[in-house]
Amino acid sequence: CFKAAKEHNIPEDLNKILENKVMETVADLYYINVSVVEMTCLDGADREGIVSKSVSSHSDLIPGVYEGGLKVWECTFDLIDYFAEAEIQFTDKTVLDLGCGAGLLGIVALRGKAEKVHFQDYNSTVIDEITLPNAVANCINGGNRMGSRESRKTSKPPLKRPKKAERLPNLLTKCRFFSGEWSEVTQLLLSSNKPFSKYDIILTSETIYNPDYYSALHDTLAQLLHKNGRVYLASKVHYFGVGGGIYLFEKFIEERNVFSTSIVKIIDKGLQRCIMEMAFKDA
Ligand SMILES: C[S@@+](CC[C@H](N)C(=O)[O-])C[C@H]1O[C@@H](n2cnc3c(N)ncnc32)[C@H](O)[C@@H]1O
Question: One GO biological process from the UniProt record (predicted)?
Answer without folding.
Answer: methylation
